[in-house]
Amino acid sequence: MEIKLFAQEVINEAVKLGASDIFIYPNQEEYQLKFRLPNKLIIFKTVVSKAGQELINYFKFLADMDIAEHRRPQVGSIAKEKFFLRFSSVGDFSGQESMVIRLIYVVGSNKYFMKDQLINLTTHASRRGLILTSGPTGSGKTSTMYEIAKEVGKNKVVMTIEDPVEIYEPTFLQTQINLEANISYESLLKAALRQRPDILLVGEIRDSLTARLAVDAALSGHLVLATLHAKSTLQVISRLQGLGIGQAELANCLTAVSYQRLIPMKSGEVACLLDIAAGKRLNSEFETQRHGDFITWTDNLKFLLKEGIISAADFDRFQEG
């Protein structure tokens, strides 16, 4: 097998399918190549161990990584015309090496079931403050944040803080976490406020310190767009409170929260369904001790089922978010 041609085949097929990640993992005497697609993880090919290691070595060569090192974690990257590739390799306890390749596309966009939902969220963004989008990994949260930032950020300074950068947008000032170089969310958020951006996009709020800095930025007059892991729309509030943000602060800075999933259509494509809380409905949640879950999620799923856009199986699958 010509390893250069095989490597090109792997990348081409991943891009064709819109994969976000390529996994090259050892599996006993073989290597499995898997693609992470919007709604599932698929096995692309299984090859013998020798071919799998040769493939990893070839990618490491392209990314200026140390081919002789098979145990310690390494990272690298290369740029293509329409996308970037970020490589991460590490050895397991038995000495077998694995690699994950993140595909960063130049243009990131979601297809939405109801375009007015994105327009609604974008309208709220014009009010500034903090806007949070939640949902599981691979639900298109970052793409939604970028689309909002591009729409409201025309002729404005937009700065992103991500780990890692997932979408390339040349009109934004994009920064990235690098813990080995002591570049953390905290240090970049503090630097961001000195850079005086109009819009700040935070890849993910993971801890109390990041939450505090994002809230402070919003309270100081910035538009802050961020993602957060939560099980539903209104549980975002509980997550922030759990990270030490008080009720009064939330009432003053939180403009809108949303939850989203990428749901398969009967046509074979996937589209994004949003659930949004803002205005009076959001404000009423600040006065309650126990928060609800969704706003219009179930009703919208019923509409999509009635119109024959999604299947009954997917209706049942996504009812709880």
Describe this structure in a few short sentences.
35% of the residues lie in helices and 28% in strands. With 321 residues, it is α/β, with parallel strands linked by helices.
Describe the structure in your own words:
With 321 residues, the chain is α/β, with parallel strands linked by helices. It folds into two domains: 3-105, Beta-Lactamase (2-Layer Sandwich); 115-317, 3-Layer(aba) Sandwich (Rossmann fold). Helix content is 35%, strand content 28%. It is built from eleven helices and 13 strands. The strands form two sheets. It has a seven-stranded mixed sheet, with helices on both faces. A six-stranded antiparallel sheet has the order 3-2-1-6-5-4, with helices on one face. Helix 6 links the parallel strand 10 (199-202) and strand 11. Helix 3 packs across helix 4 and helix 5 packs parallel to helix 6. The chain is globular, with a radius of gyration of 21 Å. It starts with a helix and ends with a helix. Pfam families: T2SSE. InterPro entries: ATPase_ComGA, P-loop_NTPase, T2SS/T4SS_dom. Belongs to the GSP E family.
What would the keywords be for this entry?
single chain; 321 residues; alpha/beta; Beta-Lactamase; Rossmann fold; 6-stranded antiparallel beta sheet; 35% helix; 28% strand; ATPase_ComGA; T2SS/T4SS_dom; ATP binding
